[in-house]
UniProtKB/TrEMBL annotation:
GO terms for cellular component: Golgi cisterna membrane. It is a single-pass type II membrane protein. Keywords: Cell wall biogenesis/degradation, Glycoprotein, Glycosyltransferase, Golgi apparatus, Transferase. This is Fucosyltransferase. May be involved in cell wall biosynthesis. GO terms for biological process: cell wall biogenesis; cell wall organization; xyloglucan biosynthetic process. The keyword Glycoprotein applies. It is an enzyme of class 2 (transferase).
């Protein structure tokens, strides 16, 4: 059984490498989030998303979002972009609930 798990078939390996090359290979940082919720009734998705957001911000895994988009803050942000090195991050989200992906996509 371990042979099939750790050495996938050529067809499965081809799918994996094509996905990696297309979406993950050129990133400076790769972040994987596996989100498992036992019961969305007792633990609503917005609560879990808030916990994920707090954890990723606390550990500096994801960039901070700007609260306002005024002209002065936009100018300041554009100045910071020229002085700071650009880091490309990709986030791979594994979950049974599409809402987590959609929320991250909306935020960024």
């Amino acid at each position: 059984m371990g042979i099939y798990l750790f050495n996938p078939s050529n067809q499965a390996w081809g799918l994996i490498t094509r996905f990696y090359d297309a979406y993950l290979a050129r990133a400076d940082e790769q972040i994987g989030l596996q989100i498992y919720v036992f019961n969305t009734i007792s633990t609503p998705i917005p609560l879990v998303m808030k916990q994920i957001w707090n954890g990723t911000q606390k550990e500096n895994l994801l960039p901070q979002l700007q609260a306002s988009t005024t002209s002065s803050s936009s100018a300041m942000a554009s100045n910071n972009r020229t002085t700071l090195p650009k880091v490309t991050k990709v986030v791979l989200i594994g979950s049974l609930y599409r809402e987590f992906y959609e929320e991250m996509k909306y935020l960024y």
